[in-house]
Amino acid sequence: MLANILVGLVALIHLYIVYLEMVLWDTPRGHKAFGLKPDFATASKVLAANQGLYNGFLVAGLIWGLWLGTAGFQVKMFFLLCVVVAGLYGAATVSRKILYIQAVPAALALAALWIGW
């Protein structure tokens, strides 16, 4: 039960990231969220939308795993591992903030799922 709540939370976090990257990237809200200058945001808008699409696939996988219930254990494990790896890479290459926003919640959900909570 706790694991599924945490998986749902990770999916919601990534759903918001999708929205930020695909819709709000070139707005004051997107600039603030990602620390962007308007010129850079305009120039990189298409790249951000592509990145948002990939985050959308993570959301889809996590929701699919939740929808499958107990049969979705491996699906949830796989997509949570993908989120952890992406979060670690982002923290190492872009901003340490990504570690706390993406990787830590996914790692907690992964641990709860593994333990059987």
From TrEMBL:
<keyword id="KW-0472">Membrane</keyword>
<dbReference type="Pfam" id="PF06993">
    <property type="entry name" value="DUF1304"/>
</dbReference>
<feature type="transmembrane region" description="Helical">
    <location>
        <begin position="73"/>
        <end position="91"/>
    </location>
</feature>
<keyword id="KW-0812">Transmembrane</keyword>
<dbReference type="InterPro" id="IPR009732">
    <property type="entry name" value="DUF1304"/>
</dbReference>
<feature type="transmembrane region" description="Helical">
    <location>
        <begin position="98"/>
        <end position="116"/>
    </location>
</feature>
<keyword id="KW-1133">Transmembrane helix</keyword>
<feature type="transmembrane region" description="Helical">
    <location>
        <begin position="46"/>
        <end position="67"/>
    </location>
</feature>
<protein>
    <submittedName>
        <fullName>Putative membrane protein</fullName>
    </submittedName>
</protein>
<feature type="transmembrane region" description="Helical">
    <location>
        <begin position="6"/>
        <end position="25"/>
    </location>
</feature>
